[in-house]
Amino acid sequence: MAQPFRTSRGGRIDRARPIRFSFNGRTVEGYHGDTVASALLANGIHLVGRSFKYHRPRGILSHGPDEPSALLSVDRGPGRVDPNNRASVVEARDGLKTLSQNHWPSLEVDVGEVNDLLSPVFVAGFYYKTFMWPRKFWDKVYEPVIRAAAGLGKAPVAADPDRYANRHAHCDVLVVGAGPAGLAAALAAARTGKRVILADEGPEPGGSLLHDLTSQVDGRPAAVWLAETLTDLDARENVILLPRTTAFGYYNHNHVALAERVTDHLPAGGGQAPRERLWQVRAGEVVLAGGAHERPLVFSDNDRPGVMLAESVRVFANRYGVLPGRRIVFATTGASAYRAALDAKAAGAEVTLVDLRLEADCGAEPAELRAAGIEVLTGHTVLGAKGRKRVTGLVVAPIGPEGRIGASRLLSCDCVGMSGGWTPAVHLFSQSRGKLVYEPGLDAFVPGTSAQAERSAGAAKGTYDLAACLAEGDAAGAEAAGSQERRALAATPTATGFQPARVMPTNADPTKVRAFVDFQNDVTAKDIKLAVREGFHSIEHVKRYTTTGMATDQGKTSNMNALGIVAGQLDKTLPGVGTTTFRPPYTPVTFGTLVGPARHALFDPIRTTPIHGWAEAHGALFENVALWRRAWYFPKPGEDLHAAVARECKAVREGVGIFDASTLGKIEIVGPDAAEFMNRMYINPWAKLEPGRCRYGLMLKEDGYILDDGVVARVSPECFHVTTTTGGAARVLAHMEDYLQTEWHDLDVFLTSTTEQWAVIALQGPKARAVIEPLVDGIDLSPQAFPHMAMRSGTICGVPTRLFRVSFTGELGFEINVPSDQALAVWEAIMEAGRPHGITPYGTETMHVLRAEKGYIIVGQETDGTVTPDDVGLAGMIAKAKKDFVGKRSLARPDVVAKGRKQLIGLVTDDPKVVLDEGAQIVADPGQPIPMRMLGHVTSSYWSANCNRSIALALVADGRDLMGRTLHVTTPDGFTTATVAEPVFLDPKGERINA
Amino acid sequence: MLLIACPHCGNRPETEFRCGGQAHIVRPVDPAALDDQSWSEHLFVRSNPRGVHAERWCHSHGCGRWFNALRDTVSDRFLETYPAGAQPTRSSEITSPEVPATVTQSTVTQARA
Amino acid sequence: MRRFSLTSLLSESLKGHQGWGRQWRDPQPKAEYDVVIVGGGGHGLATAYYLATVHGITNVAVLEKGWIGGGNTGRNTTIIRSNYLYDESAALYEHALKLWEGLSQELNYNVMFSQRGVLMLAHNIHDVQSFKRHVYANRLNGIDNEWLSKEECKAFCPPIEISDKLRYPVLGGALQRRAGTARHDAVAWGYARGADARGVDIIQNCEVKGIRRDASGAAIGVETTRGFIKAGRIGVVAAGHTSTVMAMADVRMPLESYPLQALVSEPVKPVFPCVVMSNAVHAYISQSDKGELVIGAGTDQYTSYSQQGGLHITTHTLDAICELFPQFTRMRMLRSWGGIVDVTPDRSPIIGKTPVRNLFVNCGWGTGGFKATPGSGHVFAYTLATGTPHAINAPFTLERFRTGRLIDEAAAAAVAH
After folding, report:
1. Residues from A in contact with B at Cβ < 8 Å
2. CATH superfamily of this structure's domain A297-420
3. Which of A295, A494, A705, C238 is 20 to 30 A off residue B93, Cα-Cα?
């Protein structure tokens, strides 16, 4: 018979919509509305996994997100396989393939179970005490074995075909949890017209109302009130209701992160919709109504499949129409399990209830059960469970006076519902940095003083009575929305209260009892006591030493039991031992959700110049420079980098080359005090620079090290056109703005980034003038009228231009600034005009070689944030007359003026064919013992086709004193020799530039 | 992610801003007059308090303006934000250690005067 | 000290492990110690251990305001390497790495030092140049570090995506094979147990509230929540809280304390063989012995003592992880947390004397202090024992900020042009 444990009627599943999925290859039938856990139970499947350390058979403990044991690998199709899914939250649907984890060769027969026999050795922290000899065995033997044993499921290996989305939202009131308190809160807030977001982790809002068949709310059955309330909320435009959405992180200033699972439950995978969506909500006020988690009881073999939480039995029966067993024993220390027992009985199970509390400490609930024909044993402890792959019975015994344990009795059963009380879900409250307080009456930490604009309501606050939850929710919602209105709702009273047990009393030898506290990490009460014995007294130490609370459920079911055991051992109160701080996420969140679409081109913006398309069309290869894609070189068919660059380099020196320099940063500095501002920012003098002239400027950080460089043109007495390095543009503008706004209020200057406004076409080489002469209007290009380092305004191809006569190659050159939107047309016109002259486009690699031939530095290559102007031989640019500029004072510090600083020099390899590695280290004596004294390193190194040899620049200690000396430079295999030279390899007199 | 009240634009998410570290460290008018010790303190020593801190922020992806804020570094709560050049209304709540004695606003104002 | 061994473990397992005693005592503070160490993290505990073992100074107290190892020691991503550029840093971290290599045996505590290799990925030409500079400098300093092509990177760490589809494709990497990870908590516990066995008092839940000085200005003891404790010498090893502690002696520090976040995934079977770091896209990843992917993020931009940072820092880090390892998008973040890292202007530590006599400081480890733990403790113990710096920590003075002799590893690796 299919689904033998399905009740004949009832539940919120849709019996008209059967579904089929597989578990370990076996077909499992269920109904729409089932979770994988409920469908498995409907088919009598309890054994669903093996534990982390001891490979013990494990079943389904819970119906919700706190499930520690029933973790499955879920396969939703190619590339859609992932591990460690909680069976209790995965919605069952057609075609899912689910697999149990952490066993070999099979779930039923697992060799790893030998670990269970070795459990006397494998206690908490055993690995700190051994595996140390022989020393080399750790990396080669012990660790690989430990690693292979650890880890539950298998990581995905294929690329993920799903996509993920990210959304930012603002609201006045965010309500977390759509149980009775959350619904009441959302209603109260929504009525004020404020913008409300109500998020619930389940597929269906309602929380405990979804499995409450007996309570009345506002004079109606709970389910009816729920349906009406949802209809009401749904109709309101100011309410966003988000099911399947977990609020997992509460960050600063009411920034709350939610993970919405959009398509995993849909049969077709949802088509184009994202799999999951990250909501980043900035909420005015937050209401936390996330409910509570039930505590397991700690007794011998409490981890046997079939042993589950009492409330979970109730949920499976009432909400899913599944009876997890035919003979169910409820073991409890509190009132709530009585309702579960009644419901299980009503659903058809044979039921017994065992309560640790004495009859006198109970309310009316034992009598109620007995009236329904259920045997109730009060004042009884649980000594242990029977069965291995499935529970077959529970051994119980009365506790006599002075705690003496009486004769034991075996209660046969195929399911146990246990309840050790309740723990409010204070995770988000704690994440918000609210202060938790221990409430002895509730044996729980509950929200105390808030740190942010939030409030808790309902079970999340330790309030378990339905009417009280509704009232609290209503008040919280109204308060959050700033309303005075309150609406009391009558509801059936709820039996509450429990007696904390920590570990169930037993007469067994405590060293033999395997009573689990953290099911997933296989931490027993014994382990925790061992940790305490060894001096781990802070709960954080106990956690770290035993790993309790560190599993994928993060201790939702185990933390309070562990804390209670530690407190008991130390004879302290719970707060005396401390509580752990809760950290995001509340439940695990996929990396995909957090990443969203931020991959590849969306990982970081890609900036391109107006010439980019042309360069692509002409075969350029590109390199990333900061956010920019820059043309690296333009290979012709059959050319590699080396050949293309050699050709491009020669073309520039012999004819003319064209280069896209648009990525250079540009800043327009305007105002009456522009020159004074420049004087303070740069090491150079600016006051006497005439309009129409340019100067190479060098800028320091306040610590005296080079920040950036670039050519600056004075456009008019009150206007400078500043250029920066490509990567430095934003940094330099920010640096300037910082000083201007915060230090120099006295200056009347405006700064404007013009990087995107001006595209820059560099035309370099002896024929550069001839190429543009016919295209330029309004500028006399003759050397006399337009010398090197001059700037003129005019037009080129009819387009307005700021034409710079500057050169980063050492050749006659122009940098043609034109408005970006017209740059491509100008570029193409120049290409056309240059064709008779053999114009050659070149990329950044050739630019690097050409400037190195001239010894021009590149900030970030010759400099690295620890280099001063003098280090690179540019101290002469410092304006001596200036009393101050940014960085000047730091240049006078003792170690900055001391001997031995690294100085820029040229290096000429003794073998002209050897091209040094950039980054290679330099020594005087390669025969010295290690560690060697390093003199410096190679900063730039290229094959120079124009010099027909390799060239290199280097920073070497006192390098300028070493001219002509032979030094030794590292190579991948050893050393090579090179001679120190001036850092200029071509046209040392600089005649070509003035042509 | 912090929510920061730019004095010019109102509340904006932190990703629009750049933090500039401790506020009210005024650049000496004549750095050359400082000895190495004082200069290194100006450059490097920061109050780094566990408590209320006066710090600089720039609304770099917004209006581009620098401004100052008082923020509690334990709770990350802002007490106030105020434009560059202004003084905080709740300056008495700033946690020592101390605004650097050599370079307080008042010293500089005197120096300039 | 009860020796840990397979034999002792097996014999205890027959007796229900009832025979294990405390790994360290819980003593009442004495009135006076030769040395008081403020801060019970890995560095402070290691300092105490080496004071006792190397220098025979056992009248030592380690004062911890919370629980030992609860600060950055227990919050970092456990990466250990020594392939630093500058001679000063290389010597310091290599000193530590050599101590790591025998630490489990030395402490008789398995700290699970795992030399699985640290691979640092290069994503642009500047990275390549910078990494080669490191590789060459390391070679001449006797430190292993080698350049790998991108194909070799893939062979060493198969999960890496090396295609050109990446926004910043992998161009190669620098691999230090002797580098790796260790079990962070065990480092604190192992040093604590070793120090305690030699007479050091480890005093938890004892917060320092003041530093008492005599008329000459010299430090003579600490005021604590458990009373005044006289001290011959005081070593402050308080990481993110150093500014606060040093202010008690009127010493102002060139430090700022920033939140640094990290996270782990759910545990999975072995899938990641080494440590991968990528500075250009800001990601650090390894897999713990427990199976969790351990991922480090960057610092937030503002100073804070909240041990909490912004979500955007985490997501940015995961962007980078999933860019490099696209198959991990279906992995889940299990836990995230924050630490407080004290950062100096040159991002190198300060280990040595202070302007106050008898007061010494070991701080400024920023985002990378865990790897230095044994070396840091070893040289700081020398400094506390002798009153003068060890040759290895001599360059790491407070003084360097005045003279300009900074040790700026980060600047040397700066991205520009």
Report:
1. 251-255, 280, 282, 433, 451, 702-703, 734, 737-739, 741-743, 745, 883-884, 888-890, 892-894
2. FAD/NAD(P)-binding domain (3.50.50.60)
3. C238
Which phi-psi region, left, alpha or beta, contains residue A522 (left: φ > 0; alpha: ψ -120 to 50)?
Answer: left
Task: Please tell me the distance from the alpha carbon of residue A972 to that of residue A985, in angstroms, as a whole number.
Answer: 25
Name the residue facing A255 among B1, B26, B75 (closest C-beta).
Answer: B1
Number of domains composing chain B: 1
**Are A249 and A421 within 8 A, CB to CB?**
no
Kindly give the residue spans of alpha helices, DSSP state H, lying in A573-622.
574-577, 591-595, 612-617
Model pLDDT for residues C222-254, shown as the tens digit of each residue: 999 999 999 999 999 999 999 999 999 999 999
Amino acid identity of A898? Answer: A
Quick one: tokens of C316?
A: 């940015």
Given the candidates 3.50.50.60, 3.40.50.300, 3.30.230.10, 3.30.390.30, the CATH classification of the domain at A166-292+424-480 is: 3.50.50.60
Residue carrying the six token digits 């190429």: A771
C129 three-class SS: helix
Domain interval for residue B73: 1-26+51-96
Chain A residue nearest residue C187, CA to CA? A128
Per DSSP, what are the bridge partners of residue A489? none
Give start and end residues of each alpha helix (H) in A365-465: 365-371, 427-431
Determine the distance in angstroms separating the CA of B73 from the nearest CA of chain C, rounded to an integer.
4
Residue of C nearest to A553 (CA): C334
The Cα C399–Cα C397 span in angstroms is 5
Whether residues C13 and A123 touch (CB distance < 8 A) is answered with yes
Residue contacts between A and C (CB atoms, under 8 Å): 351
Per-domain residue ranges for chain A? 1-157, 166-292+424-480, 297-420, 501-596, 612-655, 660-850, 898-989
A166-292+424-480 and A297-420, same CATH topology? yes
**Contacts B–C by Cβ distance under 8 A:** 72
- Cβ distance of A252 and B3 shorter than 8 Å: yes
Look up the CATH superfamily of A898-989.
Aminomethyltransferase beta-barrel domains (2.40.30.110)
To the question of domain A660-850 being in CATH 3.40.50.720, the answer is no
Q: DSSP state, B65?
A: -
C345/B44 Cβ within 8 A: yes
- CATH classification at residue B67: 3.30.2270.10
**Chain C residue numbers touching B2 (CB-CB < 8 A):** 302, 310
CB neighbours of A188 closer than 8 A, spacing ≥ 6? A473, A474, A475, A476, A477, A478, A481, A483, A485, A486, A487
B57 occurs within a structural domain: yes
Put simply, the answer to whether B43 touches A734 (Cβ < 8 Å) is: no
Count of beta carbons in the 10 Å neighbourhood of residue A137: 12
CATH code of the domain occupying A501-596: 1.10.10
* Residue B81 domain-assigned (yes or no): yes
Q: Which of A147, A255, A588 sits opposite C266 (nearest CB)?
A: A588
Choosing among B22, B36, B44, B47, which should be mutated to test the C contact, i.e. which has the most C CBs within 10 A?
B44
Q: Which residue has the tokens 């820029």?
A: A904
- Looking at this predicted complex, what is its ipTM? 0.97
Task: Judge: B31–A889 Cβ closer than 8 Å, yes or no.
Answer: yes
Q: Give average pLDDT by consecutive 10-residue segment, chain A, 995 residues.
A: 89 96 97 98 97 95 97 95 97 96 92 90 93 89 90 92 96 98 98 98 97 97 98 98 98 98 85 94 98 98 98 98 98 98 98 97 95 97 98 97 94 98 98 96 96 98 98 98 95 96 93 94 96 96 96 95 97 89 95 95 96 98 96 97 98 98 98 98 97 98 96 98 96 97 95 98 98 97 97 97 97 98 98 97 98 96 94 96 96 94 98 97 97 97 98 98 98 97 96 91
Half-sphere exposure of B24 (CA within 13 A, CB side): 22
Residues of chain A neighbouring C104 (CB-CB closer than 8 A): 132, 135, 138
Please tell me the distance in Å from B107's CA to the nearest CA on chain A. 14
Smallest CA–CA distance, residue C214 to chain A, in Å, is 33
